[in-house]
Amino acid sequence: MHGRSDTKGGDTVGKIQREAPRSHVDYYRADLASLDEVPRLADEVMSAHDRLDILINNAAFGFGPPVAAERSAVTAMSSGLRSNTSRRFC
Fold first, then answer.
1. What's the angle, vertex CA 56, arms to CA 5 and CA 37, rounded to 5?
2. Which of 30, 42, 36, 28 is nearest to 90 (CA)?
3. pLDDT single digits (tens) 16-51
4. What distance in Å separates the CA atoms of residue 36 and residue 31, rounded to the nearest whole number?
5. pTM (global) more than 0.85
6. Contacts for 73 with CB less than 8 Å, ≥ 6 apart
7. Strand-strand pairing, 28-29 and 2-3
8. Spatial contact of 89 and 55, defined as CB atoms under 8 Å apart
9. In a 3-state reduction of DSSP, which class is residue 61?
């Protein structure tokens, strides 16, 4: 599992393990709004595991108030799509 907050991530891992005691969940911290963190996260996961059985992408990010210009909205959506589909795990 991945997230931006070690505190929230640890709390979520604890909840999963309490509800499913035989589960095994690893937590990795990264802010995927920073494209520099994507390859770092991929390297960290790949060095800890022989394979990745499940990958669920539910990533989204915003830039404050609603985007006024159509071009800015397209740029923001394109950046989000690239961060979810064009990295090492795909």
1. 45
2. 42
3. 999 999 998 899 999 877 888 888 998 999 999 988
4. 9
5. no
6. 67
7. parallel
8. yes
9. coil
How many angstroms separate the CA atoms of 52 and 65, rounded? 36
Length of the chain: 90
Residue keyed to tokens 């035989």: 22
Please give the pLDDT value at position 12.
92
Closest CA to 36 of 72, 87, 89: 87
**Cα(85)–Cα(90) distance, rounded to whole angstroms?**
6
For tokens 């397209």, the residue is: 74
3-state helix, strand, coil in the chain (%, to 5): 45, 5, 50
Between 64 and 18, residue with greater pLDDT:
18
Note the Cα 51 to chain centre separation in Å: 17
Burial class (CB in 10 A: 0-12, 13-18, 19+), 38: buried
